[in-house]
Prior knowledge:
Elements: E1 10-11, E2 17-18, E3 34-35, E4 42-43, H1 45-48, E5 51-52, E6 57-59, E7 67-69, H2 75-86, H3 91-98, H4 102-123, E8 131-141, E9 157-166, E10 174-178, H5 182-195, E11 201-204, H6 209-218, E12 223-231, H7 237-240, E13 247-256, H8 267-279, H9 294-311, H10 323-326, H11 336-345
Parallel strand pairs: 8-11, 11-12
Antiparallel strand pairs: 1-2, 3-4, 5-6, 6-7, 8-9, 9-10, 12-13
Amino acid sequence: MAATRSLSLTQDDKGMPASSEAFSKPSFSSSDNLICSTCFFTITPLYCILQLFARRLLICTAYCSTYHAMNKLSIQRRSQIIKTLVEGNSIRATYRMTDTAKGTVTRLLVDVGTACARYQDEHLRDLTCRRIQCDEIWSFVYSKQKNVPQDKRDFAGDAWTWVAMDADTKLVPSWLVGLRDAGYAHELMTDLASRLSHHVQLTTDGLKSYLSAVEDAFGSDIDYAQLIKLYGADPTETQRRYSPADCIGTKPNVIQGNPDPAHVSTSYIERQNLTMRMSMRRFTRLTNGFSKKIENLEHAVALHFMWYNFARPHSSLGSLNTPAMAAGVADHVWSAEEIIALTDSN
């Protein structure tokens, strides 16, 4: 091993690192060694660089203070990580399976999730959907609501993901992560209405928040019904914690327009709830894979629906058709590499 001298870091008047008079030469056997393209000095992140601008730049403080673009995982490696995440694995399981740092996996999720949300927001427009089903699925951030510390109540506790789904193409054109109240119901319906090109039939559960939200978003231009579930006696004490009461029937309730009784159903959207719980570890009950930050939950949901809409053929549509293809939004099955490429274009 080469001799090591102390490293002195200083900053100029703009807060940027200045040249260091002394330098530290690390071991050449480290797999993390980098070569500075200016001074050709061997440096390592541990001793000789400072991460700046959201970890996108590295500075060689060993000799020349030259800034370098941070090493990026290959497209194949990033594709492997994304495929692992969308198949229901947690962050920790993903970094163990792909031999990648936990922070790298999380940053990739943030980058790809942001790009997926932006792409779908821009392209899921003027849709010709005719039958929409909506529902909400529960999860939590940091801890369950009853266990949230007082100082974390603004960003922890119950989190509800609102989802709208086309019953024919199985496309999910709109979703929203938030609370289960009238404000978020209104936001979902307003967003959904802006993406549809014509009159639709809408079915939701019996949540009262939908009533005013649907009226404000669609006016009279909609056929809307609620499907009210009828439940039997409460389950036993040992079941109550994890299971709802038995559903013994349903009651359709026409709210507006003239909905077709044969299509007043929430079966497809409830099946989508199962898909979400199986495809995102954050939604799996009785595990420690729940989200610790609401932002990461939003990124994970955006990635899930990008994969579901564009990259995962749906069995009810045929082995080679995705919901986006059935809806006329895409002309082929997307690959993980194409999804990752969205981050580069952004």
